[in-house]
């Protein structure tokens, strides 16, 4: 009753004929409730256990069964429907197996009568079994809730990754354009400017002791494509895309 079982003790509910206070209200997954009442009459059964005369014992046994039947009727009439969530049924807790067995011996129809009134006669064994079942239901509800949360987080994460890869693709294109512009500038500088400037030392325009102008090299490494982008750019025959390098070469995208 301590973990995965939601319950309230001695909850007071106002009614037209006064207030009612079940001993325990157990909340079920999905919003249902089970009311447990432990105020069962015991005086006739106690007298039955102490009686020596067989006729008296038989009469007290019948009185005990009648008291339980009356108790069931009273529970059925209580306004437990005034709870925040109307209960599925009411559990009449009977604190001992012999108490119920003796009543059923004298009144075999008592159990069916109680079920018709939406009252369940529960001994300690059956009540504990019912509470354990409810606890397992709460555990399953917790697992289902966690699964729903994981699904939501997975969907959110997937959308964020999709947006992020879009940014990365835009950055890759920008880097590719920058590398291409740099290589064009280097090619122009080398072929149109520096090829002439390097003749100055031989013509005596500058001292021969000066260091030569370093040759500029184009960038030959192209920005790496994202694997998802490469797969999206495959041709209909399933062949990998061809990446054109800034120096005019080509490379097959492998995603590696």
Structural commentary:
The protein has 256 residues and is an alpha/beta fold. The chain has a domain at 6-143. It is built from 7 helices and 9 strands. Strands 1-4-5-6-7 form a 5-stranded mixed β-sheet, with helices on both faces. Strand 8 (242-244) and strand 9 (250-252) form a beta hairpin. The protein is rod-shaped and about 145 Å long. The protein starts with 5 loop residues before the first strand and ends with a strand. Residues 229-256 have low confidence and may be disordered.
Separation, N- and C-terminal Cα atoms: 55 Å
Number of helices: 7
Strand order of the largest sheet: 1-4-5-6-7
**SSE sequence, one letter per element:** EEEEEHHEHHEHHHEE
Write a concise synopsis of the structure shown.
The protein is an alpha/beta fold and 256 residues long.
Helix and strand arrangement:
Elements: E1 6-9, E2 13-15, E3 18-20, E4 24-27, E5 33-37, H1 43-50, H2 54-77, E6 89-93, H3 97-106, H4 110-116, E7 119-122, H5 124-197, H6 200-203, H7 227-232, E8 242-244, E9 250-252
Parallel strand pairs: 5-6, 6-7
Antiparallel strand pairs: 1-4, 2-3, 4-5, 8-9
Short key terms for the protein model shown above:
256 residues; alpha/beta; two-stranded antiparallel ribbon; rod-shaped
